[in-house]
TrEMBL record:
Keywords: FAD, Flavoprotein, Oxidoreductase. It comes from the Eukaryota. This is FAD-binding PCMH-type domain-containing protein. Pfam families: BBE, FAD_binding_4. SUPFAM superfamilies: FAD-binding/transporter-associated domain-like. Residues 31-203 form the FAD-binding PCMH-type domain. Signal peptide: none annotated. Belongs to the oxygen-dependent FAD-linked oxidoreductase family. One of its GO terms (molecular function) is FAD binding. Its cofactor is FAD. InterPro entries: BBE, FAD-bd_PCMH, FAD-bd_PCMH-like_sf, FAD-bd_PCMH_sub1, FAD-bd_PCMH_sub2, FAD-linked_Oxidoreductase, Oxid_FAD_bind_N.
């Protein structure tokens, strides 16, 4: 199937090109936009299969877009074909009896929370409601409930995958087990997932949410308190520390904490932070789904708005030392002084109880980051277009000033460097799991059609 007319007429969905009313290449990160030749909006897995075969027959670069939330450009293509699942394949169905969620590949986590919480159930999802399920899941997947339920990949029961030759396969512990192993951490290297089936967990309606805004001079006291707090951190408790700009551009440190319990329990777990004298304390009880909108507050870079220049750069934090927070504060101050257009950028460090994640053997899934390290993320944002060619180097310099040695990173915080080159970055990311991934890649994608995210070279 090589002609556009034949391809278009065979679809239940829609194929568009520049100038058509439905053609849409916008992304959450403005710098991740590429001008695709065709954008396909499939209705089902069969449409996805046809789009893959059309791209291959016409030797066109292929990209898969779910939520379009990444900053690396992996969901975009210059002059190629985008299979955009988000427009027409975004449904969520809950099986209350079996405690399963059937989620199409273009759905957003907010939709999953909304559907499942009607039954008092929850999937282990991300921390931002408007991120897509696909990228987060196949890349590993941390969330506020990681301490209790592990990673998203640990809660995946099965998936429907469309492979490079157009086959529509079910991957699970009993069917195509090698493919199931690979997509749980191996990203989009093996084909788009048109449906995920997640295990659901009983979830209380309301949780405790700590939100405290401090002036930067409180950093040493916060560091002391985090060191003590971490020693007794429960599985039900998590914390994000955000170095950002408050209203008016004034630097601040935002503590966002969660306790999956009562107001009284939550206040007890975070009372020592409240005693440090925050500038503002908005801690409260809230409905569980609202926590995944928390990082869209004006203190965290207006994260809900699409179309701004953004780049993620991550690093693992092997161990917490009390000087770490001071280094983060100084690194952000220097960056904003040197590049004032980056003033809305944030640096975030996440603290989850890691026991559940580490309890799964490293080689049980493709995800290789089960060492209990914390995630550091530079969420770089800039308003001066002339900075765009330089932001990747800026992000490297900032992160290196905080963590001087190479510690690896969480793949979902990719800065896009993986789109341009060989397998060196992928080998580092997947570690001991890389050889098996390369072998599975050869079986399901020998021509390396899917190569947009930490590309695995077929063995």
């Amino acid at each position: 199937m090589t002609s556009l007319q034949e391809f278009s007429s065979s679809l239940k969905g829609q194929v568009t090109t520049e100038g058509d009313a439905g053609y849409d290449i916008k992304r959450w990160a403005k710098n991740a936009v590429r001008k695709a030749k065709y954008v396909v909006y499939p209705m089902d897995a069969e449409d996805v299969s046809k789009a893959i075969l059309f791209a291959k027959a016409n030797k066109l670069d292929l990209a898969i877009c779910g939520g379009g939330h990444g900053s690396s450009g992996a969901s975009s293509t210059e002059g190629g074909v985008v299979i955009d699942l988000g427009k027409k394949m975004n449904g969520v169905r809950i099986d209350e009896e079996k405690k399963l969620a059937y989620v199409q590949g273009g759905a957003l986590w907010g939709s999953v929370d909304e559907a499942s919480m009607k039954y008092g159930l929850v999937a282990l999802g991300g921390v931002v409601s408007h991120t897509g399920v696909g990228g987060l899941t196949t890349g590993g997947g941390y969330g506020w409930l990681t301490g209790q339920h592990g990673l998203v990949v640990d809660n995946l029961v099965s998936a429907t995958v469309v492979t490079a030759n157009g086959d529509v396969l079910t991957a699970s512990d009993t069917e195509n087990t090698d493919l199931f192993w690979a997509i749980r951490g191996g990203g989009s290297n093996f084909g788009p997932v048109t449906e995920f089936v997640y295990r659901l967990h009983e979830q209380r309606a309301e949780i405790y949410f700590a939100e405290m805004i401090f002036l930067p001079d409180k950093v040493p006291q916060i560091a002391n308190e985090i060191e003590e707090w971490s020693k007794t951190q429960s599985a039900e408790t998590a914390l994000h520390l955000v170095f950002a700009a408050g209203p008016g551009g004034r630097p601040c440190v935002v503590l966002m904490g969660m306790h999956n319990g009562s107001l009284e329990e939550g206040e007890a777990r975070f009372e020592n932070f409240a005693a440090l004298g925050p500038l503002l304390n908005k801690s409260r009880q809230m409905p569980y789904p609202e926590i995944n909108n928390a990082q869209e507050s004006p203190f965290v870079n207006h994260a809900a708005e699409h179309g701004q220049n953004r780049l993620f750069k991550g690093a693992f934090v092997p161990e917490f030392d009390k000087e770490l927070l001071s280094r983060i504060k100084l690194a952000r101050e220097k960056m904003v002084t040197d590049y004032p257009a980056t003033a809305q950028s944030a640096i975030i460090i996440e603290f989850y109880n890691s026991e559940k994640v580490r309890s799964v053997p490293l080689e049980a899934t493709a995800y290789a980051g089960r060492h209990g390290n914390r995630n550091l993320c530079l969420a770089l944002s800039w308003t001066d277009e002339s900075l765009t060619p330089h932001v990747r180097q800026i992000s490297k310099d900032v992160v290196a000033s905080i963590i001087p040695r190479e510690t690896g990173e969480y793949g979902n915080l990719s800065d896009g460097e993986t789109l341009e080159g060989g397998a060196e970055k992928s080998v580092a990311l997947f570690g001991v799991n890389y050889p098996r991934l390369a072998s599975i890649k050869k079986r399901y994608d020998p021509e390396n059609v899917f190569r947009k995210w930490y590309n695995i070279i077929p063995a």
